[in-house]
Write a structure and sequence with these properties.
It is found in: Membrane. It holds the Pfam family Na_Ca_ex. It comes from Chitinophaga fulva. InterPro entries: Alkaline_pH_Ca-Antiporter (IPR052946), NaCa_Exmemb (IPR004837), NCX_ion-bd_dom_sf (IPR044880). α2 packs antiparallel against α7 and α4 packs antiparallel against α10. The protein is globular. The protein has a single domain, classed as Up-down Bundle (A middle domain of Talin 1). About 75% of the residues lie in helices and about 0% in strands. Strands 1-2 form a two-stranded antiparallel sheet. The chain has 12 helices and 2 strands, in the order ααααβαααααααβα.
Length: about 375
């Protein structure tokens, strides 16, 4: 991984200057966002958001290079998911009962984007460049098994329980589902980082890799990674009214706003996964995408359960029939695609078609 040495050479800090300046400019823009409201400033926020996303991807790769796999992808997935959960909880507390579907819509959008969008692009671009790419089946199967169970139990089962009418869990059911979500995600992380860590390690591709960055460079990258991810969420929140007005002016349903915001929040992970696939490191891409999907459910549902129980309002978790069909189709397609241990361009095309169907039927239900 090439680095541009900046700052003081005696400290041996190896980071490009743009990766440090972009988040700092974003902080300034965020501070000014409350008092300025015009088209030029909105475009400036959008440009700053893109540069911050690129900065986050770079710092994530520095940290991943230092700690090694699968810890590097786990750190990025956890960091983004924790910030995503914080945003969801804050919006739920501010909107009250009006935000009862926010967690469901955001989590489902994140899962569909990760499963069909990010993985689809990775398989498409990797297959186009290398024809076939390999990965470790045991690790991918472990992630898919856990993801299938946790997504069905949290997003589909509420439609069929009878203690509380509608696609809603009662408080006791919600607490139970929150606990099993933590158990499933915790079990996956323990397998990924402990007992079966070798299932998630990318195979050596024969490339010559640079020496890992030193402790100071890694610490700076970790700090700026967290700053960048927080800024991605905060700027997305600031841009959401503009995005919402654009969606409404187009005549599209309001649920499209949640998809756009989820896509922006997941952009750092998506770019990191795509770059790994283009380097023929598909295992890293799958670690990022599947790990993020699991973290999105495994951490969001318990947080939402705590807020719901203590705030005293209900939360709708069950997705509708159309969304259930698309979720099952996505999980089924990926399971078949990864059954052979090799991927090709066609599998990426199929997943992207499912994503396009999801987006189209959201706009034209």
């Amino acid at each position: 991984m090439p680095y541009t040495h900046i700052l003081y050479k005696r400290w041996n800090i190896a980071l490009p200057i743009w990766s440090l300046v972009s988040p700092l400019i974003g902080v300034v823009i965020l501070m000014l966002a409350g008092g300025i409201d015009n088209t030029f400033f909105v475009l400036l926020m959008a440009a700053s958001l893109i540069s911050i996303v690129l900065s986050a991807v770079h710092h994530a790769e520095v940290v991943a290079h230092r700690v090694g796999e699968p810890y590097g992808t786990l750190i990025l997935a956890l960091a983004i998911t924790v910030i995503e959960v914080s945003l969801i909880v804050s919006l739920m507390l501010s909107e009250g009962a009006a935000g009862s579907t926010l967690a469901r819509d955001t989590v489902f959008a994140a899962i569909m984007i990760l499963l069909t969008g990010i993985i689809g692009l990775c398989l498409l671009l990797g297959g186009y460049r290398y024809k076939e790419q390999v990965f470790i089946k045991q690790g991918t199967n472990a992630a898919l098994t856990t993801l299938t169970a946790i997504s069905i139990l949290t997003l589909v089962l509420p439609n069929y329980t009878t203690t509380t009418p509608g696609p809603v869990y009662s408080n006791s059911q919600l607490i139970f589902v929150a606990l099993i979500s933590l158990v499933l995600y915790g079990g996956f992380v323990s397998v990924q980082t402990g007992r079966h860590r070798d299932y998630f390690l990318p195979e050596d591709d024969g490339e010559t890799h640079s020496a890992p960055p030193n402790n100071l460079t890694t610490t700076l990258s970790m700090l700026f990674l967290l700053i960048a991810l927080v800024l991605v969420v905060m700027l997305s929140k600031k841009l959401s009214p503009t995005i919402e007005s654009m969606v409404i002016s187009m005549g599209a349903p309001k649920s499209l706003v949640g998809i756009i915001i989820a896509a922006v929040i997941l952009l750092p992970e998506g770019l990191a996964a795509i770059r790994a696939a283009r380097r023929n490191r598909l295992q890293t891409s799958l670690n990022l995408a599947l790990g993020s999907a699991l973290a999105s459910i495994g951490l969001t549902i318990p947080a939402v359960a705590i807020v719901t129980v203590f705030a005293g309002f209900s939360v709708t978790l069950g997705i509708d029939t159309k969304s259930t069909l698309l979720l099952i189709l996505s999980l089924f397609t990926i399971s078949i695609s990864f059954n052979a241990g090799r991927t090709n361009i066609l599998q990426g095309i199929v997943l992207l078609v499912i994503l396009a169907t999801y987006l189209f039927t959201t706009v034209v239900p």
